[in-house]
Sequence to fold (519 residues):
Amino acid sequence: MASKMMSKIILLLTLLVGLVLASNTNDTTDTTEFFELTARDDGIDLDVFRDKSVRPKNAKPPGFDSYLWSSIATFTDDLTDGKLVQIADDAHKLMRDHWKAEKIDITKQPTVMTALKVGRSVYLASSTKGNPPVVYQRRRGQDGKGDIKKGVPDDLANALTACLNNRGNKEPQHQNEAQCGEVMAIFAWYKKNPGKTIADQSPVIVAWEYKVDPQSNKVTANGIKPPCNSKNYWGCQSLLPKLSIREVKEGTNGESYSKPTELRQQELLGKCGLTCTGTADSRGTTRDEIMKHVDDLCDRMSKDKRGKRFKGLSQEYKNNGGSTVNDVKIYLEEGQSQGIASKDECKKNFQKTIDECDTNTRTQKKGGRIGDGRLVYSWSTHEEEPKVKCQEHDKDNYSHQTRDTFIESIKSYCKDGLKLKPQDQQGENPDQPTVMSTVNLLVRYPESQAGCHTGKDHEVSAEDCERSFLIVVDECDTDTRQEKWGGSRIFDTDDGCFDYSVTGWKGEYVGPALPPPRH
Fold:
């Protein structure tokens, strides 16, 4: 009897799970089963960027423009077909986020995001919407005869021409004018790897299509899109075999993947290549802080007396707060013997590495690198061990105390531990005075959080509180235990930066703490 009852319970639970899963099915015409998965929390956030090199220099008539998003993501994982599918889907979602932010009209939105895997790098590229065409000189409707632009890599151009020849010249141009995401991703690989042949790299490709009907606003496609081809026109289905590129099969489900360790962009028609160099472990800095440092270095370059003989410039800049140091550099591109740029041009290039990397924050910028064909503009961050600022021997306002007196006051202040919130100036410890009769103690967020982790609720144990204050006491006036003046030090934690100040106090006042001394 008990076993029959258990069987019924298991059957009922199975039916309930089936109902829940069925209720979450997307209302789309794509019947491919697909699981929504997210990347793990280590590494850099995946993203795609608009390729500005394909845009016309003089947009005439109004609305004459090209729309393409791309990036190159490098991973430590072995990338299965399922992971590649998920990366393509996630990249399409990110592109759609950019459309919303940039208010891109629905008629200008690419429907496909392609992921081309070569080794452990994934070349992401959308299909291209708009004008002028990227690959051909002219569109089919403009009497296009298959003439390919000079900037298109030879192997890609030869493969397109071979497709044309196989059709007996009846249809000279690719079905979609070679504007497909597959073509754009292959184009980017050749631009990034001059002199190499993609057929030797065991490449794998998948295109993810997402379409919305502009009238009903319903999703009409959301899944893997096979390479284009038709009875009357040749397309990517003809192109990919000529480059030995394997396509991922329809119906392949997405799999979870770790975040990329490096993110960059290769512009198709320009020499610019953006690399976002920050990682999850990198120190962050605010946009305002790094722009201030960039302005200084670019100003120095513009005034450099070497002129065209300029070879490079670098400087370390410490943030005003926290322990982050910014390494800002300008140096010659490989193969270049000389180069110089104006201050405005310099700042414009650096600004791309700041605004087009770590795009979801203004306070945790972590670094990037970009080249303009002559110079490379690069910046990164590293952590510097914070130093104690020792209190000056100001007998008019402060006093020295013995080490034992400091320890006694520290133990009294720290006995219940500390609780701090990002908006607080000092710990929540209302029953404990923060100025003893002879020692002034205070823990607070410093005036600047530049280069610090984002502030969060922070708890400090009594032991850690005592240890932090004692570091300050013992690293100042190291030649004595009887005449200690104290000082302050910023401690950098995952919950933000905290300023620990402990100084000898001249007076008998017991109450709220005075602010730490300025140095």
